[in-house]
Amino acid sequence: MTSRPWLASYGSIPADIDSHAHDSVLAILEAAMTRYADKTAFVSAGQRLSYAEIDALSRDFCAYLQNAGVKKGDRVAVMLPNIAAFPIAMLGIVRAGAVQVNVNPLYTPRELEHQLRDSGSECIVIYGDALPTLAAVVAHTAIRQVLVAGRPAAGDALGADPSTDDFANAVSLRHALTRGSALQRQPVSLAQDDLLFLQYTGGTTGLSKGAALSHGNLVANTEQFKAFVADALRPGEETLITAIPLYHIFALMVNFIAYFSIGAENWLVANPRDMDGFMAILKAARPTVFIGVNTLYAGMLQHPQLAEVDWSRLRMSGGGGAAVVRSVSERWQAVTGSFIREGYGLSETSPVISFNPDFVAAFNGTTGLPLPSTDIKLLDDQDREVQPGQAGEVCVKGPQVMRGYWDKPEVNAVAFTVDGYFRTGDIGLFDEQGFLKIVDRKKDMIIVSGFNVYPNEIEDVASACAGVAECACVGMADEKTGEAVALFVVRTSQGTLTEQDLIAHCRTHLAAYKVPKRVHLVDTLPKSTVGKILRRELRKAEDPAAARCPLP
C-alpha cells in the first residue's frame, strides 16, 4: 500500500481492520440470530419477525433448496422488492452455500434474460408481479425451479400463496418453507474465498456484468464500515428503515448485513414511491438511522408530513449511490436535526470505499475518508499518479474489492491496473485532510473550450437556487465551444422559477464557461430504480436544434 496520507485524520479509528475476523458472512449472521433471538429483526407489511423466526424460516428454506438439488456454488437468482421474503431467501441461499444473483424486480424481459443466462442461474426466487417478465424469457434460460413470493398483506409478511399457473414447476415460497420444515438440512462449510453474490452493474454502455463478490469481500466491508460509524451501530439499540432496494449492494451490505449483525430492528419499505405509506412507516418506526440516496431525500422533503415524524432518536443519516447535494442535506438537517453523511462506493467494491466517519460534525461536500485497509491512487490518462490537490481516476485496492467480473477475463484484464488497483471510472481529488471528493464520472465530464466542467459542481450550485426541487446536468454539442452545459430542472411544487432566474443564479456562483447555455424545465427526471438520475437519458432528450426539449 501507499503511505495513505488520510490516516493522519483518522484519530482513534484503526488504520486496518481484521479482514479475517469471520470465516464467512453466514458466521456473522448466525451469531446475530443466536445473540438477539428474541429481538425483532424485520418489520414487513405490519408483521414483526424475530431473529429466531428468521433463523428458523431460513433453515427451512435452505433444506428445501438442498433437497431440490441446489448445491454449493450454484447460482440462485433473487428478484424481490423489500419484503420479508428477501432476508429469508438470502439466508437460506447462503446456508446452502449457493451464490445469490441479485435481480431488479422491475427489469424488462431483455434485462432479465441477459442476467439469468450470463449467471447460469437454474433457480429463481421471484415476486409474483414479475412472473410475466420471466414467462417471456424463461424458455431461453436454464431456469428449472421457480419459487414465488406473493404480495404481502397487512399482518402477513410473506403474503398469500400467489398463482403459479403460468409455470408448471413453480411453487410458492410459503409451500417451500412448509415443505422444508420437514426435510433434513446439510450444513455447508464456507470460507472467505467462496462466492457470495453476483452483483450486476455497468449496463449503461452495453450488457451488464456480474461483479463476483466473495464472503471475504463482504466480511471486510462490514468490519470497515463498523470502524467508521461505531456511534450509529450500537448493539441491540438501532432501528432503521430500509427504503432503498435490498437487491442493490449499498442496502444489502449496510442496511442488511451490517445492521443485522448488531441486532437492529429493520423496517422494510417495499414501495417508497407510495409517499403517504412511507410516511406512516417513518412515524411508527421513529428510526435511529436512515440510509438513502439524494433523490429519495429530495422526494421526502417535498412531503408535508415529513415534519410530523418524531426524529428525536435519529443519530445518523447516510447517503450514497449518487452525490449528495448540499442544499438537500441542509433542508434535511433543518427538519430532522441530522445532516446527510455521505459515502462512496461501487458494486465492485462491496460497496463502500470511503465514508464520513463519526467525528465529522457537518456536511462537507466530500465522500469522506477512505476506509481502513483501503488504498486509493488517483491516476491520469497515462496511469501516472496525479499531484496532491489534482483530480484523477480513483483506483482502489483493498479486501472489499471484487475478484473480478463473472466469466469476463478480457474485461478483467483492463479493469485493474498492472499492480492490482481496480479502475472505478470516477474522477476524484483529495483535500488537505485526505477527504475524497468525487468530481464526476469520466464519461460525464464536459469539455467547454478546453476547460473541464464537472456536472456535480453545476448541479450543486443550481440546487441551491430557490425553487429548484432537483436537477441534472449533461453536455451538449456546441459549434463554438465544442461542448456546452445543458441543465434539466424540476421545480418545487409552488415554484415560479424561470430559466432566466436560474441562469442568473448560476452566473453569480460559476465561471462563465460553466454557466448552463440551455435550461429545460421538466416535470420529472429519468431515474434508475435505485434513484440514480440517468444522465444518458437526458443526453438522448437534449436536442441542439431546439430551444427547449421536454423529456418524453
Descriptive notes:
- The protein is of the alpha/beta class.
- It folds into 3 domains: 51-190, Rossmann fold; 210-441, Rossmann fold (3-Layer(aba) Sandwich), CATH 3.40.50.12780; 445-541, ANL, C-terminal domain (GMP Synthetase, Chain A, domain 3), CATH 3.30.300.
- 28% of the residues lie in helices and 24% in strands.
- It is built from 15 helices and 26 strands.
- The strands form 5 sheets. A 9-stranded mixed sheet has the order 2-1-11-10-12-13-14-15-16, sandwiched between helices. Strands 7-6-5-3-4-8-9-19 form an 8-stranded mixed sheet, with helices on both faces.
- A hairpin with a 2-residue loop joins strand 22 and strand 23 (451-453).
- Helix 1 packs across helix 2 (51-67).
- The longest helix is centred in the first third of the chain and has 17 residues, at 51-67.
- The N and C termini lie far apart (49 Å).
Can you tag this structure with a few keywords?
552 residues, alpha/beta, Rossmann fold, GMP Synthetase, Chain A, domain 3, 9-stranded mixed beta sheet, 8-stranded mixed beta sheet, 15 helices, 26 strands, 28% helix
